[in-house]
Design brief:
By secondary structure, the chain is of the alpha/beta class. The chain has one domain: 3-Layer(aba) Sandwich (Rossmann fold). It contains nine helices and five strands; from the N terminus they run βαβαααβαβαααβα. The chain has a five-stranded parallel sheet, with helices on both faces. Helix 4 crosses helix 8 and helix 6 runs antiparallel to helix 8. The protein is globular.
C-alpha cells in the first residue's frame, strides 16, 4: 500500500463512512475530508440560478423538504447533486495526488461506477453496504433530530427510501466493478470496521484498475 495517495469511502447515509474515514486517516497518517462539506461550500458560493441542484431545499427548508418528498424527488435531487459535485471531488483528488498529500475522502454520493473509471493505482476505494433494518434503526435512534419534524414517520419513510436506494445502488455497482465492499450488520465496533477495511485494502492490487 506504499503507493496509496487517495482512499475513497462510499455508502448510504448513516452507514459509518465518516467514522471509518476518520479512523483510517488517523491510522494511515492521512488527511480526512467529508465531501458533504464541499457541497456546503458550494452552496455558499453559488445561487439557485447558477447551480439549482445545490439549492433544492432553499425554498422550503429541510423539514418540509424531507417530509413532503416524495422519495422519487429526493432520489432525483441526489443524482443531480452527484453530477454537479463530482467534478469538484475529482479535482480535489487530483490536487492531493499532485501535491502528494494523502487523504481519505468519504461521501454518500460517491458511485463505484464513476470511481472505478479513475484507473490510478494511487487511488483505492471501500464501499459500505449495511443491513437495511440496522440502517433504519440508526435513524430512529436519532430522536433529537426526528423531534424537529411535525410528522417524523412521514419524513423517515421518505428519507429511508432514499438511503436504501443508495445502499442497493452502491452494492450493485461495486459488485459489477469488482470493487471491495464491506458488508455491515450495524453492530460492528470502529476497530472491527477498521480491521475489515484494512483487510480489503491489503488485497486491492488483486482487483482491476
Amino acid at each position: 500500500m506504499d503507493d496509496l495517495q487517495i482512499l475513497l469511502i462510499g455508502g448510504p447515509p448513516g452507514a459509518g463512512k465518516s467514522t471509518l474515514g476518520r479512523a483510517l486517516a488517523a491510522e494511515l497518517g492521512f488527511g480526512s475530508l467529508t465531501a458533504d462539506d464541499l457541497a456546503i461550500a458550494g452552496r455558499m458560493l453559488t445561487t439557485p440560478e447558477t447551480h439549482p441542484a445545490l439549492h433544492v431545499m432553499r425554498p422550503v427548508g429541510y423539514r418540509q423538504y424531507f417530509t413532503d418528498g416524495p422519495a422519487e424527488k429526493l432520489i432525483a435531487d441526489a443524482i443531480a447533486v452527484e453530477e454537479t459535485m463530482w467534478p469538484v471531488v475529482e479535482r480535489v483528488i487530483s490536487s492531493h495526488i499532485e501535491s502528494r498529500a494523502p487523504i481519505v475522502i468519504d461521501w454518500w454520493l460517491l458511485s463505484p461506477k464513476t470511481v472505478g473509471q479513475l484507473e490510478d493505482k494511487r487511488i483505492a476505494s471501500i464501499w459500505l453496504h449495511i443491513d437495511a433494518d440496522a440502517l433504519e434503526q440508526r435513524e430512529r435512534s436519532n430522536t433529537e433530530y426526528l423531534a424537529r419534524f411535525a410528522d417524523p414517520e412521514r419524513m423517515l419513510t421518505n428519507f429511508m427510501a432514499r438511503s436504501l436506494w443508495r445502499n442497493d445502488l452502491v452494492a450493485a455497482q461495486a459488485a459489477a466493478a469488482r470493487l471491495p465492499t464491506l458488508e455491515l450488520t450495524g453492530r460492528e465496533t470502529v476497530d472491527e470496521m477498521v480491521n475489515a477495511a484494512r483487510a480489503l485494502m491489503a488485497t486491492r492490487h488483486d482487483a482491476p484498475g
